[in-house]
Each structure stands twice: as structure tokens, then as C-alpha cells.
Amino acid sequence: MLVGTKRISKLEEKNIMRGNIIICGGPRCGTTSLFRYLGYHPQIIISNKKEMNYFMGGSYTKNQFKKNNATIADYCNLFKDYGPNKWSLEASPLYMHPSVMEIVAERISTVLPAAKLIFILRDPLKRLLSQYLSEKIKRSRVTKDSSFNSYVNSCLTYDDKIISDKSERARVILNFEGLDLGCYAITLTKYLEYFDPKQIFVGFSEDFFNDPKVTVQKICHFIGVDSTVYDFFQFTVENKQINPKNKLLYKLALNVNQFAEPVLNKFPRIKNQIREIHNQINSGSNNTIEMSIDVKTSEQLFEFFTPQNRLLITLLSNVWKIKIFPSWLEKSLTNN
User: How confident is the model at residue 245 (pLDDT cuts 50, 70, 90)?
Assistant: First the structure.
């Protein structure tokens, strides 16, 4: 077999198939920081770009993944300096997107049957708020005048089936399935159809944000690599959400990062310095989006997420034997 220009043996191929880590989600849950932290480990090689979305086919409208021809060699070509004693790491949070999670789970299990999957879960309300703000500021998929309340209403009422144009349908799905992305029990149940629970790590953003070292070291144990690498590691926040003073400058910075990411990944300190300079120059006042949620919207979100959170507690307790939950899950048990 050829990996890039290098021919590998069947034994090496077997080792490669055992050495793949995928952060599957969720979006706005700290996956960028986790990706960078794990990429520091000498036994882990990160993908050329963080969000490859390889098993989605590259996009919603153009399927670049050829199921019958996809091989481990194709996948390994996406990594620099890949070796049989290394673990590959990609982070594609949209792998838990409701529209693609089933086909993605099947594809990963076909090409990388022994892969280790990581899911980081966040309070679905806070995750939705973060997504709304990100779309409004970063990608402009939410209009400037759209309030969070109207955005939630759009998420609750959209019907992509009435849209015939594929590209427009893809845009609508991407915009308004924010609520469904918080239905974590459904996502995990789907992946359990293709993977053993021992191949799946489930953590919480709240724990990760409060003490990233503990979460990262737990993941090291899950993978089977040395966790002492992080004993003196300096954890800095990646992909920090800001309210930019100048949106054009912000978008320019995003485009530069996207274009230069394969190069910048080799020089993380320089990348961090550039990011800090931009944030210092272009950060505006703190976002106060949480203050704009009206009573009706709060009730709608509570009604939507509470049953899903209860299902999640049952799943995590029964499958992964998790007994300690973050406050947003505990509240779903105490509220009727």
C-alpha cells in the first residue's frame, strides 16, 4: 500500500488503522482548543486543517467521499509525517450534525473501524447562543438585525423539505438545525450503532473549560498515550469568541487563517501571537446576548431540551457509567 509516496507493509497498515482519533463534536463546545492541546503531544499528528469534514464528503452539496474506493491510505494522505507509531487527529464537529451523522458514522466505521471518537458536550442552550453569535458575527449566515428570539423561532419552524434548490437547502439546514445539534442522546445512540462504547469518549465542556488539564489527561488515558506530557503545559483558549470592532478585519483574519492553516499548524506559537494581536486590536465590548432572551423563548427552549437531556443522562449512566453530571443536566431531572 502507498501512503503518499511511501509504500507501507501490511503490519504498518494494521498499526495505522489502530491509530486514528476523531473529535466529532460538538460545534461551539471547545473542540478547537482540544484539537490544539492534543496536537502538542509528540505521539499525535494533527490534520493539515482542523475541520477536514472528510467523511462528510467535504461539503453539503458536493460529495467528495467515494465510499467504494476510500482507503486508509487516502485518509493518511491528509496528515504530514504520518508513521505507524503515531496517532492521527482530526476535529470535525459537524460530524454530529443531524443531517450527516448517520452516513458519517457508517463511513468512519468502514474506513477506520478501530478509531477513537471524542465527543465534548455543552449546555445546549449556551451552545445554541454561541452558535447564533458566531453565525451573526463570523459567517453572516444570520442577518444583522435578527434577534436570538427570532433565530430560535426559525430553528423550531424550519422545513428544509420545501426547498428544491440543493445549495439553498444546504444553507438553511446549516443555519437552522442548531436546536437539533443539542440533542446529544440521539447523536451518541447513532454512533453506538457502529462503534463499541469503549471507542467513544464523552466529556463535558464545563469540565474542560474549568480545568482543561484534567480533561486532556483523561483523553490521553482513553487513547493510551502518556499524559505526563501535559504536566507543565500552558493551556490557552483557542477560537475565543469576540465581538469585533471591525467585521471586515475579522473576516480577513478568518480567511487568512483558513488559507494559511496548514502552515500555521507547524508554528503554533506564532499563530497564537498573531491571534492575540488581532484580538487586542479588534475586540469590542462584551457580548450581552443572554440578556435578550424573552420569557416565551426560554420556555420553548426548556420544553425542547429537557426531554433530550433526560435521555442523555439515562444513556450516559447506562452505557458509560457516568454518575456526575454538569448542572444543566442535573436541572433537567429536578424540573417538571
Answer: low
